[in-house]
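Our preliminary data section would be incomplete without showing what the modeling component actually yields. Below, a chain of 587 amino acids is followed by its predicted structure, encoded as tokens that our downstream tools consume directly.
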Amino acid sequence: MEKGKCHANGFHGLFSIKPRSKVRITSYKASREYVGMAKFLLTEAELTKAFRKIPDGSVVAISGFNISTAPEYLLLKLYDTFLKYGHPRHLFLESDSLPGSPGRGIDKVCSQIEENGHYQFLKGVLMPFLGWSPALQKLVLDERIEGYTISIGTMAHLLREISAGRPGLITRVGVGTFLDSKHDRGTLNQLARKVGRVNVENIVIHGKEYLLISAPKPDVALIRATTADEMGNISMEKEGIYGTVFTITQAAKAGPTCGISFCQVERVARLGTINPKAVHIPGPLIDYVAVSPSEYAWQTGSIEFDPRISGGLIPPLVHKRHEKIDLDSRTVIERRAAIEIASMVRDKRRAIIANFGVGIPSEIPSLLESEKISDFVYSTVEAGPWGGVPLTGNDFGVSVGPFAIIPLPDQFTLYEGGMIDISVLGFMQVDSEGNVNPSILPGRIPGPGGFPAITSGSPSIIFTGQFTAGASDIRIRDGTLSIVKDGSTTKFVKDVYKILFRGEVGISEKKEVTFITERAVFKLGNHGIRLTEVAPGVDIGRDILDRMEFKPEISANTATMEKSIFIPEKLGLSSYVSGIRKVGIYE
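Predicted structure:
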């Protein structure tokens, strides 16, 4: 352990640095020279006093892609203020994704609301993803609060429109899906449908259909960063992403009614010690700065701090040696998708830009790395990282060793503008027209996440998932796939429960759409989905057609999936990219 004196910040005292831990300031002497700028809230009493100024019924925008950039300390103290004083109450919360993970952040607050019966705290939420908060989903399903949702990128762009004083966001994202005004308008319960606080209209511009989405302007911003200087200038050097913290601040501070901004930081620095180019939010936009305990500043749901995530250290690329490969139905899907991606690199004769979603897709970048072709596939995550190895589970949103990290709204501008080559996403249900439902079922409302925005812009889409759901016994041996016991739930259905990708729109926009399962591969065509490949050892009638609620078009030359997928050896994908020049100075 090293010890030294903390001279470079507005607090003076000893601090200790432990491996993979945060700076801990042990004594405080705050500088108050910069009157009229951000006010530093050094005690819980000061923070509570500031929160009590928030009017009842306010709209509060909160940053957070899971725990990353989530101002967990501020959120918990806001709820504590309500518990002590009964105010502020009837709050409407908006977020760029979800400010929390199971048992933390918004999920912890909603669990306490349910336990205490203090339903007056929240009036409703507009959040793109509720999947990591069972407690929030329960409040919505029980009709305790209004529940609205739109895609992650749509929310980020809507906040930018609010910041500029425009009446709403015009977008193609969600046309023909459950976000459309002809369907559910992104409402998650009857209470939201009755109140209609978030509005969606279908409009036509130059003969093409769009959605006009509007939502309440935030009165309050709760955001998180790493460092604030004495003027309140904010930097994010230890965060794994930038997320939407600047855009949320802009939306709250925009006219005609200038709101209040609170920023949770880990430490305070002397004015002039943050490089101006490293300032993510200028101090005059920040009203209050709260220094949080270190337990509320984790980079992800399970990682306190890793410099490889925040760009402090980019590790050298070390290809995995030949390791044992355990084949199951999931790894078969990953391997078949990897072949599709390698084929695209071969056909385009260049490196490609890809997005990988949660679940099975999130495991594919590691497979590409082990096959030594990751240099030709620039993986991106919707939260902002480029390159590196994306993390999974409740760590999703960050990458280990990215070569670039950009703000979330800019990432989705790239996605929606079609400036990526391919996206790999999951599915829960598919129907004969190629409509896809990735996540929503009765009693289950995780929200769309980034799915609608990514599929809207991506010219090539791979949907991955197991052919059926439920307990199963599927064995891979001797280069074949054997279904001893199939899952009980059909996923290729007559009508999907909620449409988040409309096949008709994909066809009209000439997207290349592929559905990959462990036993079959389908393509989307003008007449719906078409069976193109079957796993070796699988019977088309018994194992595929009899397990679907509709009969797909069947290619006259239906192929057998490559046998190498079902053998526990490397796929040899490096041969697909042989002779293709890497991007960069060195070969």
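The longest strand covers residues 553-560. The chain has three domains: 1-30, 32-166+215-292, 329-577. Preliminary results of this kind motivate Aim 1 of the renewal.
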